[in-house]
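Action item from last week, closing it out:
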Amino acid sequence: MRILSVTETYAPFLEFGGPPVKVRALAQGLAGHGNEVSVLTADWGLEARLSKEGATGAAQTPYGWSRVESGVKAIYLPTWLRYRAVSWNPAVKRYCREQLEDFDLTHIYGLYDFLGPAVAAACVKRNIPYVLEPIGMFVPIVRNLRMKRVYHALYGRKLFEGASAIVATSEQEVEELASGGVERGKIVLRRNGVEVPALWPERGAFRKGLGIPTDAKLILFLGRLSQKKSPDLLLKAFTSISAESGDANPQLVFAGPDEGGMKAQLEEMAAQLQVSSRVRFTGPIFGEAKWAAYRDADVFVLPSQNENFGNTAAESAAAGTPVVVTEQCGIAPLLADAAGLVVGHDADALAGAIQRLIGDPELHSRFVAGCATVTARLGWEEPVQEMEAVYNRLAFKRAPSAKSGRWNSESE
């Protein structure tokens, strides 16, 4: 099959969080199965990024920069205007006009951008099936709620109506979509996976870089410092944790990019609560540094208000570090009482769970062992196979293409 993935953000721009990691994993997995996979995305400064990293392999095309990695061809459309993680990329229309007919189907990731609706409209016009994966954005939770409602009125409704299938990554997201009016018959449940490094970083490197003693209990938050992920709730919980835990003062690390001035709010809050000396901010970390953080932490916490899956919690489990997640995280049922604790979205509940994990060596050890069991079920191969089966079903139903000459059983 020839598959086009459409995403506002893609590698190497991993600072945008989980979406580019997910799209890359699925795209490369599908390419490994013999499919021809292309990714259409926005250019957030590819030439400068590759030059800074000393990387090569990008080439100019009529539509923007192009780069092939692990069998996947990515096309980075020139960005004319941008606001946060939203961009305007006029070349998308030309690309669709000249290239879209060559694909059997399209997979559109995310909402609240302009790339997805443009490609979706072109797919409908050409009778090309497309899959929509909202990646947890269907329910507006925080920030620009009015603008998100306007988006749904102008683009979102048509985007969902035209999709041949809609992917949810947890039962929680299935119910959110269905209660929001999406046809259950269209919804496909497919979890996310986790990619583990070929070689694990040596333990202690992350702590050493931050000057955290080896005997201090380290609590880690890794992700965007956004209102949706509730890092402020975690900080509040942290202040009530006994300083006697583990015979050393517990330390809290926030690792991730700032969003909407949240870092400044957290710093001010930490000062008011008199815990600044035990709270660190690293900024965004990727690759080996990210895995080193997971490995050195005693507990990983994901206190989100709403999370369609929770990739960082899966990564923490893969690194062997027990987790505490809120009930609002889609991954919670996979981790509960196996690799960690699941609690309500409440500071006292978070504090109690963290205290249990850092203060009970036997419980902590049991969850460390459970992390390996959970991780064995969280690889990407199964999601790739499930996605390929959906694609095959949809591509088989496609009407004949004048450009490719393909036919389906209904047209024979």
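Closing note: The CA atoms of residues 33 and 334 lie 27 Å apart.
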